[in-house]
Amino acid sequence: EALGALNGIKALTEGFGPLLFGFLMALFEDSPQPGAPYLVASFLSLWAFLHCFELPAEPDAVLSLTKHISKRRGIEEANGLMTADDYSDTGSDDCK
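Below the sequence we write its predicted structure tokens.
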């Protein structure tokens, strides 16, 4: 679910970002400060960088849950495989 949300946000920024900054470039093209869109972009980047330190540290519970999910996924994938007992039930001695 989180991956889908991130992909949705990425798609929105890829669509609206060029529109917004293209508009800003056209707006400030003949002004005394033609680099204003770059100044806006640098302030947004600085804001994002400073706010990344406010994110909580990744707890050990998340890591152990990830390991549990990946182990369970492996077990579920292995359920469709035949075991040695399955081969012996066929009555053929070729598989032993």
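The radius of gyration is 27 Å.
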